[in-house]
Amino acid sequence: MGTTTTTTTTAAATMTMARREPPGRITLNGRFGGGVEFSLKAMDDTTACRRWRVIIDGRDHLLGRLASVVAKELLAGQKVVIVRCDEVCVSGSLVRNRVKYAQFRNKHMNTNPNRGPFHFKAPSKMVWRTIRGMIPHKTARGALALGNLSTFEGIPHPYDKKKRVVIPAALRVLRLRPGREFTILGVLANSIGWKHQDLLQRLESKRKVKAEAFYQKKKAKAVLKSKAEQAVASELGAVGEILAASGY
Q1: Model pTM score
Q2: Which residues are within 8 A (CB) of 170 and not within 5 positions of it... i.e. 6 or more apart?
């Protein structure tokens, strides 16, 4: 009997060791809002390094289409930054959207409005709230996905020096029929009480001056590089052909 007990204990210990987490992974245990139990496993370091931050220029994108694409990417683990949220578009005239937003702002708790729902006036928070509605943000997975989202009015530092992309499936010029009315989110926000439109315009005008100077300097450098390559093209000979075949 003693031998059997020792063997069983050893087997149990072996199974416990086999269930341990592999190196580079951690387990988080706790409680989420509403008393929901959750247990999360962090990604491996190598997987986390592959998740770079995508910077989306929100200018002239339709709000709903932009939000749906971003929500899918966030749930897949992608980190997303949306800049120029003040220039995101919503279909429909300004009068129509102001009426719709006024109806939306009437929705609050009857006995204590301080408990929500909360209605944002800043364009960046409007975009953020729209995306939040497309994510199961009350679950642990959704909360982590929403934590990977950042929204800004204008293009603040350091994103003004980084590459920005657009989403063709959400561009107004490709998805909204010509002649249809649309509203710019910054104009709508300004009409309902957002107070920073003038400040944003001043900051953006300064940024555009710096961006233009940087672009002209970049073009001049590209011209000098092209002339230098042409000057030594005859000297390189066969090396130049090999480099050209390799894409250089």
Answers
A1: 0.72
A2: 61, 62, 65, 66, 69
